[in-house]
Description:
The chain is α+β, with helices and mostly antiparallel strands. It has two domains: 1-44; 53-93 and 139-222, Thiol Ester Dehydrase, Chain A (Roll). Helices cover 40% and strands 24% of the residues. Strands 1, 2, 3, 4, 5 and 6 form a six-stranded antiparallel sheet that branches.
Amino acid sequence: MDVFEFIKEKKADFKNNTERYRVMLEPKFKALSEKLNGKITNTLNNPWMFNLPSIDRSKIFKKKPTINNEKIKNAYEKIVESIGKEILVGPWETVDQDRINRFADVTGDRQWIHTDLTKAKLESPFKTTIAHGFLTLSLIPKLTEDFDFNTIHPGLKMIVNCGLNQVRFPFPVKSGSKIRGRVKIIDAVPNKNNVELFNEVSIEVEGRKRFGCVAETVLRLYY
Length: 223
């Protein structure tokens, strides 16, 4: 056997061994990855995590903003004092089947897991109908309406909803469940004539450890 044949043979052996080890190890790494992801997800969705202090994102890689508008400056400084704090735990609100059905009619989402109680009892893993995730999300204004903005935002004239940065539905809200909103300020950004406010809104389900919805809302506050 000459040198070239020897190298060619060893290269083929290496390729075969690599493929064999890949086949052996890939399922193990995949299972480990799924296990870790599951543990991380369950940890983040645990209500106990909600009571941990939030990271003040305004202090990460940011310089202290220069604010020329005195009214905006005062408002911003007032908000910053509450970053990381829970500012509202709202009252309980029942999500009954009638509300779920009406949401299905408005949106056209009449999937049986939401509207067919008989089938849900037989085939759904939840053994009953569940609210649409977007129904739970859409109830945020209702669940947080008791918050008095003047306690943190004196002189506020108008609020504009600018959308959401992220939304998760960690746990289904079953028909007949009671839910309530919990609000925590996580960041604020001063602009020329307004302040953008970033809140973490968590929808608690009565009797459950995991939230029905966790959303980061973005509001623009005008003074």
